[in-house]
Amino acid sequence: MAAPRHQGSNTTDGVTMTAQQVAQNLPARTRSCHKGDFGHVLIVGGDRGFGGAAIMAAQAAVLCGAGLVSLFTRSQHVSAMLCRQPEVMVHDENLNELMQRSTVIVIGPGLGLQSWGLTLLEQVLACEKPMLLDADALNYLAGLDQTKQQKLKRDNWILTPHPGEAARLLGCNTTTIEQHRSNSARQLQKRFGGTIVLKGRNSLICGPKQQLTQLDCGNPGMASGGMGDVLSGIIGALVAQGLSGFAAASTGAWLHSTAADKQAELQGERGLLATAILPQLALLLNKVD
User: Fold this and answer.
1) Measured distance CA(114)–CA(72) in Å, rounded
2) Which of 19, 106, 175, 238 has the most C-beta neighbours closer than 10 Å?
3) Per-residue confidence (pLDDT) for residue 13, from 0 to 100
4) 143-154 pLDDT, tens per residue?
């Protein structure tokens, strides 16, 4: 499924993502399709004490239409994942075999930077599959010197930093990132390649040709744990279904923020949980116009 050309209304920060553009990126499925047509997302993460992050990412990927979703995590989180979402295949060994079978890899949610997480990162980063890096995967990348960062630079990955992670990646402070968000997103893309999702108010997505898209949706209730993990799963599912990295990131970020807005209309912003927006996502994916 080829991603259509990105269009929208021009703004000072680039192009604003619209419901119409999202609809164009999500065409109706044919009556003869099967799960193999919609890709296989592999989530890697969930060290001891952080299983929820990887579980939420996997659950989001399932609900956003991936044909298959696998989770590689610590053995103690296997039962929790199966209880939460039995459609997810859960593993605690044979990562290389899983990577070979996957369409896209999402690594970082709850990964940690201890020996377990670092070993997994090295394995995944040596793979040529499309991937999304979030959370501790970004912190690992930020800790490398620029020579090593340049060796890892690639076109087929998506990085999803919040302002603090973006500051570490660029070696500056968060204030600088927030005062110059468009420039920061473009600097990140130039340094690391691929597609960048700079999260925060009016999230920005910068693509491989330095094209920039911004959101005009989202709310302060999203400032809660797990929201970024859900976003990673959404984008991973869209890549698996055939969207380019830039189209998947732009569409996924819009779906994520719009789902949060719809849930906030029902319950308010305080206490808005990352998992509470999941039902809204499923509705949006099928009703957006």
Assistant:
1) 16
2) 106
3) 60
4) 999 999 999 999
